[in-house]
Design a protein that fits this description.
It is built from 9 helices and no strands. By secondary structure, the protein is mainly alpha-helical. α3 runs parallel beside α7, α6 packs parallel to α8 and α7 packs across α9.
Length: 188
């Protein structure tokens, strides 16, 4: 991920909030947005009170964000400006369902996990938490969309996307489809 223009950041955020092209007819938002609603309802004070928190949805949200983070950091360059753009995109796409402090904390955790485990192990950890094909497609879609923020998908970013698609068992051509769908959505 590198410096990007505000228009593109807004376009990516909007596209992330919308149902993907392969969603069932009548879908009102993306899986990312649905999972964010549960993740955002998590309160650090008391996990036992009824808050609408669903741990499976929260894990899905974390997996979606982590996949995009792995792609964004693939080139080894994820400076403060890029991190701020990444946070802004996720917060905006989720329509305020997740607080800035929650995304900042999540990114700090992801940076630590990536540093400890490396990319390949983190890809496997993301894949382990994704149990449905449509969730896997959303993981790849979000990562593909965010990879376009830097003005194109580098070889190293493409490699991470390919490894994600393989770990998610999405089949041959999944990365190409996700990147094509992302490009088409952003050119509207």
């Amino acid at each position: 991920m590198s410096k990007s223009e505000p228009y593109l950041i807004g376009k990516v955020a909007q596209t992330l909030s919308e149902p993907p092209p392969y969603a069932e007819e009548g879908a009102k938002g993306s899986i990312l947005v649905a999972a964010a609603a549960s993740y955002g309802s998590q309160t650090p004070e008391d996990y036992t009170q009824p808050t609408g928190f669903d741990p499976d949805a929260a894990r899905l949200f974390e997996g979606i964000v982590e996949s995009a983070y792995l792609v964004a950091t693939a080139d080894g360059d994820f400076d403060a400006e890029e991190r701020a753009a990444f946070e802004r995109i996720v917060i905006t796409a989720c329509g305020g369902r997740v607080a800035e402090r929650q995304i900042s904390a999540l990114l700090a955790d992801l940076a630590e996990q990536l540093s400890e485990d490396g990319t390949d192990k983190r890809i496997l950890m993301v894949a382990r938490g994704i149990t449905r094909e449509e969730h896997g497609r959303e993981v790849l879609r979000v990562a593909a969309l965010l990879s376009h923020v830097s003005g194109g998908v580098s070889d190293v970013e493409r490699s991470v996307l390919d490894r994600l698609a393989e770990a998610l068992s999405l089949g041959e051509g999944a990365t190409t489809r996700a990147l094509s769908e992302a490009k088409a959505a952003l050119s509207k």
